[in-house]
Write a structure and sequence with these properties.
- The chain has helices spanning 80-90, 107-114, 196-205, and strands spanning 23-26, 35-38, 43-52, 55-65, 68-73, 117-122, 128-135, 138-143, 156-162, 165-170.
- It is α+β, with helices and mostly antiparallel strands.
- It has a domain at 32-170: Pnp Oxidase, Chain A (Roll), CATH 2.30.110.
- The strands form three sheets. It has a four-stranded antiparallel β-sheet with strand order 1-6-7-10, with helices on one face. A four-stranded antiparallel β-sheet has the order 2-5-9-8.
């Protein structure tokens, strides 16, 4: 897809490059405004080697999606610490206060307790230009920070999320390479004319949660 470089033109409609501070995290249990930072999804490919005399040959193996780290500011209302403990309880963990309670955690309850997680990068107008959806995400750890008489910092909570895999949706066309989700290729891909406007409209109209649903 032919495109002018962002550093050589300021033509109308030309988008800035993606910026780290332009993002929104959507989750039914975590208000958008308490999110301080989030690590985007990443993956690792295991490697199997074969050695022949003094030569080593590498072969790709299984793909593992790495944890997503999330930092929240802990307000008084809503209380983010209490929210995390409620998610833990809904996941199936209960303190040992009742000897008859022998229930334990399971994946389905943990995933449902957290809810859908989506990370959107936006442009200067607030339009989504990149969207990551975590499939079957659940809270693997929560750190509630430390207290210090010499610190004026806001209290923070650090979460680690596990998930099975992530799906990316972007505004760019199919010639963007591996970043393009092949399941969302426009119908006219074979004609070499990607429907960018149609993809943008579909992206904005199908996002779960948040004002973009309207």
């Amino acid at each position: 897809m032919a495109s002018s470089n962002f550093w050589t033109t300021a033509a109308p409609g030309q988008r800035d490059p993606k910026r780290n501070f332009r993002f929104v995290l959507y989750n039914g249990n975590i208000p958008q405004w308490i999110v301080k930072s989030v690590k985007k999804p990443s993956f690792s490919v295991e490697t199997t080697t074969h050695q022949y005399i003094n030569h080593t040959f590498n072969y790709p193996g299984r793909v593992t999606w790495n944890d997503v780290d999330l930092t929240l500011v802990d307000p008084v209302s809503p209380d983010a610490a209490q929210t995390m403990m409620s998610i833990l309880s809904l996941s199936g963990y209960h303190p040992p206060s009742n000897s008859n309670d022998i229930s334990t955690m399971c994946k389905s309850r943990a995933v449902n307790a957290l809810g859908d997680v989506r990370i959107d990068q936006i442009d200067s107008d607030g339009n989504t230009i990149e969207s990551w959806k975590l499939q079957n995400a659940w809270v693997a750890s929560a750190e509630f920070g430390s207290l210090d008489y010499t610190s004026d910092d806001l209290s923070e909570i650090t979460l680690t999320l596990k998930y099975d895999f992530a799906v990316i949706t972007t505004l760019d066309g199919p010639d963007s390479g591996p970043l393009q989700d092949v399941r969302t290729l426009p119908a006219n891909y074979a004609d070499g004319a990607p429907d960018l406007a149609g993809r943008e409209e579909r992206l904005l109209n199908t996002q779960p949660g948040g004002p973009l649903d309207n």
